[in-house]
């Protein structure tokens, strides 16, 4: 099935409200567990970068899990950033800085980060290189990169089946969002090709019937190659 683009930013108030109230407990806690495992359970205490943070649920979970960490969380949607600022609980609020900005042009407060993560952004991007180029720009040797996203099923029937399995009881607007996201997502071979084009050596793993996990550590050698 060919990729069907969806609007890059989530700016519609109703859509943002619905997304912010949805229960993403299972995939988002799985994301933090996998990320933590990937960094060998180390007590990360630096500044992490969250790309396409949406209403901030993953940023907050990360900050709560890594109690000494800080997060710079970026999204191009003003409605999402406003929602994230409103929803972020007091216990993590001082450690998360929300930044309104579009990938790939966003200017970030730091020139590099030790940890860069992103959940469910890649499928939104009309040009996926926006994500990989920002990672290259803001990584340094040793930066840990952790990305999770949806995978595009083989057919629209398979996409409908996934919506019925995992979102049957959700509001219609969320079901539509999920369906559109599945159609906009990439396949494993497409992601492989994107990473090759970007010159990024990251591991790609299909971790469920609908999710892909991409991770790796940026080696020093890249930087001599890029300059
Ligand atoms: C599906 S949401 C994921 C939000 C969050 N990471 C999560 O897992 O709940 C994708 C987010 O990426 C943002 N986005 C899409 N394209 C972007 C771009 N080029 N630059 C910055 N943000 C973008 C959208 O506005 C939206 O908030």
From TrEMBL:
Gene3D superfamilies: Vaccinia Virus protein VP39. The keyword tRNA processing does not apply. PANTHER family: TRANS-ACONITATE 2-METHYLTRANSFERASE-RELATED (PTHR43861). Keywords: Methyltransferase, Transferase. This is Methyltransferase type 11. Pfam families: Methyltransf_11. Coiled coil: none annotated. GO terms for molecular function: S-adenosylmethionine-dependent methyltransferase activity. It comes from Crenothrix polyspora. The keyword Ion transport does not apply. InterPro entries: Methyltransf_11 (IPR013216), SAM-dependent_MTases_sf (IPR029063). GO terms for biological process: methylation. The lineage of its organism: Bacteria, Pseudomonadati, Pseudomonadota, Gammaproteobacteria, Methylococcales. Residues 49-147 form the Methyltransferase type domain.
